[in-house]
């Protein structure tokens, strides 16, 4: 079976994911690659980063999903859509991997973790309202591989850049959709 000239197989999907070709993976799957799970507690480091990121409000609050396996099909930093917290999907940025900048003996224990920061946090959830909820995170676009930062200040700056890059991705995506819709109406 082929889609747009690509042979559909689990190997082809895994290869596209490993290489960060999220568009190819979505074409093969017929939908964006997604990860579903229960939101669990983490170290609350994202909130602590607010103190070193003036003007960031709640800092970089994350939704954490843990995995039993050690080798994810994809890894890195992604622009994502989060389903299950609001009536509409929420844009976000996510780290899928082992968090190389943090101590491997932390609560994550060096295991694979999906940490997702919603660019627009639903006010109705409050600070603690997402724990225990089942969410689905669609990985739409790979921004880059995981990086190791030297200290929390560098990590904060890196996350801020990732947030800005994810916002730019969604703005560009919205612009493409708007132009297509306008063309279709003419």
Q: What can you see in these coordinates?
A:
The chain is of the alpha+beta class and 186 residues long. It has helices at residues 10-18, 22-29, 45-48, 152-185; strands at residues 2-3, 6-7, 33-38, 63-66, 76-83, 90-97, 113-118, 134-144. Strands 3-8-5-6-7-4 form a six-stranded antiparallel β-sheet. A two-stranded antiparallel sheet has the order 1-2. Strand 5 (76-83) and strand 6 form a beta hairpin. Helix 1 (10-18) runs antiparallel to helix 2 (22-29). The chain starts with a strand and ends with a helix.
Features:
186 residues; alpha+beta; six-stranded antiparallel beta sheet; two-stranded antiparallel ribbon; 8 strands; 25% strand
Tell me the strand percentage band: 25-35%
Q: Gap between N and C termini, in Å?
A: 35 Å
- The average pLDDT value, as a whole number, equals 81
Largest beta-sheet details:
6 strands, antiparallel
Helix and strand sequence: EEHHEHEEEEEH
In total, how many beta strands? 8
Counting DSSP H or I runs of 4 or more residues, the number of helices is 4
